[in-house]
Amino acid sequence: MTYVAQDRPRIGWIGTGRMGFQLAARLLDAGHDVAVYNRTRAKAEPLAEQGAALVDRPADLADRDVVFTMVSASPDLETVTTGPGGVLTSPDVAPGVLVDSSTVSTQMSALIRKAAAKRGTDFLAAPVSGNPKVIAAGKLTVAVSGSREVFDQVEPLLARLGRGVTYVGEDEVARLVKIAHNVFLGVVTQSLAEITILAEKGGVSRAAFLEFLNDSVMGSVYTRYKSPALVNLDFKPTFTMPLLRKDFDLGLSAARELEVPMPLAAVTAQLVAGAIGAGHVEEDFAALILEQARNSGIALEAQNVPVDDGLSPRA
Length: 315
Hints:
Blueprint: E1 11-14, H1 18-29, E2 34-37, H2 41-48, E3 53-54, E4 66-69, H3 74-81, E5 97-100, H4 106-118, E6 122-125, E7 128-129, H5 132-136, E8 141-145, H6 148-158, E9 164-169, H7 173-201, H8 206-215, H9 221-232, H10 241-258, H11 263-277, H12 288-295
């Protein structure tokens, strides 16, 4: 195991999409030395204004104490780690710890863990729950699996990313935690769309119904957070339908492997696929409510009323 200083480790960050950019910025704001790689360099350039060093290849981060990866899918993770110019391919040096916060399959995670071990690099699977607004509110959560000893070393750094860091076990179990989380996300959102449309078709405004729900014991941080989108039909993407479908595929695959029946998840996966077929590919997955309304014979209009999402500083 590589020792990592807990006070000021030198950090590498790979992947500055909507999530990765915000998380790298948090580490910079905390005063850390951060070097960044992104496939599209222009997306990472604003981080240079905050003090980040930009590099041209993942391999240029191989001398860092801790390297985070946050990419879209399993093939992307393989590319930036063991592919040409990957962070694990430098002949003379390798990172002390590789922390992957992507949502990828357990099989790919195990493959990268094995490749990292060959280079003397410790590997932590650390998928996150949240989106850019959740990050800004300091409410991101992280599930981590791998060596407990390595986790204990890196935990102070992970704690900079949000409010909750949970060690869930050895090897790749954090992947299953995140996949289960995202399956639940889809099932809950579809259920929320169904009952909201039921209430609206019966004569209750979406704003009034969701205000009641959010103030009840059935309300949650999540239902409150999604309420503005459902009321005002603002589907600026935080998580798209194709990404949700990918996670359903991973979840149902794990269910088959572990012999766990998941009938609700299976039905929801088909509804998500239907929404994609109807053209909802760039919008936020809360657009499931539009398909629910169409199937219920009603057309929705934005209600254009202020709705608290529960993530503002005063909340």
